[in-house]
Amino acid sequence: MLVLTADQLAAAVALIELDGIARRLILGTPDLSAEHVGSVVAQGGVDAVVLDQALAGFEDLGAAERILCRVDIAPAGDVALDRCDTEWVLLTSGTTGAPKMISHSLASLAAPIKPGQNQGADIVWATFYDIRRYGGLQIFLRAMLGRGSMVLSSSAEPPGDYLVRLGQRGVTHISGTPSHWRRAVMSPSAHAISPRYVRLSGEIADQAILNTLRAFYPNAGVGHAFASTEAGVGFEVNDGLEGFPASMVGAPGDVEIKVEDGSLRLRSARTATRYVGGEGAALTAADGFVDTGDIVERRGDRYYFLGRRSGVINIGGLKVYPEEVEAVINRHPAVRMSVVRSRRSPITGALVVADVVLKEERDGDVKREILQICHENLAPHKVPATVRFVPALDVAAAGKLARRDA
Amino acid sequence: MSIKSTVISEIQQIAGEKKKTLPALTDDLVLLESGLDSLGIAILVARLEEVLGLDPFTESDDIAYPVTLGDFITIYENAAKSRDVDSGKTR
């Protein structure tokens, strides 16, 4: 089953009802384009698609059956159903723009949730994430499995209005990326909430945002977590400092942490098992560790995150593959080649910037035309913030573009 | 060009690229209601670093994140002032 709703509440209802019933549940993200739905349906072996009213007209579903999900869904009485262990499949962006499908189970998704911790009816969760992404799903499962409550976000709602609504609903535990939180503290409604727990994940949490949140919400515990869809939740850091203590590496526990070739690697019951479809690329190494691709550096008794090995750019928690953006830029007839890289941003963690080599001197406003092609073909966070013309690009020995982040 | 007019002209430029219409850019305008979302503000900060050579948000771990356009401009004006003072000292 592919759950593909515009509304998060409809998705939440569908997930609750279908776990244990469907053989496989694929969580369609709100940015899943019509172009890629067909490949998800085909590769994911989808028999039926759960849609809500807003997406009822969705066309490219292949042979899959359509099921309309309404929020006011009612129990159907006693229906004999075979229960099964449902495979949960999350989507993340891939190199070409087509999503990668990552296979979890409810057990692996719920493994980071400690029984008795942050549970109970007095806890009201909220997240700036969408619950169909790993970070948001963690919060949804904490709320549901812990018998708490949860206030969902809506993509159309201005951030300030959401904060006011969270305040009115007495939200106690809130999670988001550092970029979400920077946006929150730039809102006049930042003091509409008074959380007991503030959680950051999905991006590098820098000291500035940790300090700011501690000052804004003096009654809250402020913690940052390392998690990825593939590796699951690695660890949580609650000492108010960026990075993580070096003592965590190699220490016994639910999650084993090691650093090899500069990157962080994790092994635990929380990791995904495999990619669905695709070319059968292995998700874990032979020893069971997942290479997160996040480069860390030890300074004193702490490790600090430096960025990503593969050149993947993380914009406010959303991944951007440089290759996808380069392919769009290279469609401009005047472009010989381009390299897209990351530039640090104090607001969104990173920004996409492009260096472009032109075939020849060109009249007209090529820069504006390139940006226009990007705006027309890419999600807003993938459009380069700056385009720079350069005489040549570094090409590494293997003939591949040398990727180097600013 | 003053810091203020540089900031305003960059905001207009970015809004133009994103085909967003801007409200009146007054000092008490809430930055996130200016038509720029946080991605737009991130682009603004990056372009201002190129134009002004200043990034007041990266220079310290103790940042006052701006709420209004006036706050934002003041942060840049103060950063420019303290840079001028610093360069005066070393001269």
Topology summary:
The complex is a heterodimer of chains A (406) and B (91).
Chain A (H helix, E strand, L loop, with lengths): L1 E3 L3 H11 L5 E4 L6 H10 L4 E4 L13 E4 L18 E6 L7 E6 H5 L13 E4 L6 H12 L3 E3 L7 H10 L4 E4 L1 H8 L11 E4 L6 H10 L4 E8 L3 E6 L6 E2 L10 E5 L2 E5 L6 E3 L13 E10 L2 E7 L4 E3 L2 E3 L1 H8 L5 E11 L3 E10 L7 H12 L8 E4 L17
Parallel strand pairs in A: 1-2, 1-3, 2-5, 3-4, 7-8, 7-9, 9-10, 10-11, 22-23
Antiparallel strand pairs in A: 5-6, 6-16, 11-12, 13-18, 14-15, 15-17, 17-18, 19-20, 21-22
Helix pairs in contact in A: 6-7
Chain B lengths: L2 H15 L20 H15 L16 H22 L1
Helix pairs in contact in B: 1-2
CATH homologous group name of the largest domain in chain A: ANL, N-terminal domain
The helix content of chain B is 55-70%
Q: What's the number of structural domains of chain A?
A: 2
Question: Main β-sheet of chain A, in a few words?
Answer: 7 strands, mixed
CATH overall fold name of the largest domain in chain A:
Rossmann fold
What is the multimeric organization of the chains shown? heterodimer
CATH superfamily of chain B: ACP-like
What is the general shape of chain A?
globular
End-to-end separation of chain A in angstroms reads 42 Å
Number of spatially distinct domains of chain B: 1
Which structural category fits the helices and strands of chain A? alpha/beta
Count of separate DSSP helical elements of chain B = 3
Number of strands of chain A: 23
Overall residue-averaged pLDDT value of chain B: 89
Radius of gyration of chain B: 13 Å
Low-confidence stretches of chain A: none
Report the largest inter-chain contact: A-B, 32 and 26 residues
CATH architecture classification name of the largest domain in chain A: 3-Layer(aba) Sandwich
Task: State the gist of this model.
Chain A is α/β, with parallel strands linked by helices and 406 residues long. Chain A has helices spanning 8-18, 34-43, 106-110, 134-145, 159-168, 178-185, 207-216, 322-329, 366-377; strands at 2-4, 24-27, 48-51, 65-68, 87-92, 100-105, 124-127, 149-151, 173-176, 197-200, 221-228, 232-237, 244-245, 256-260, 263-267, 274-276, 290-299, 302-308, 313-315, 318-320, 335-345, 349-358, 386-389. In chain A, the strands form five sheets. Chain A has a seven-stranded mixed β-sheet, with helices on both faces.
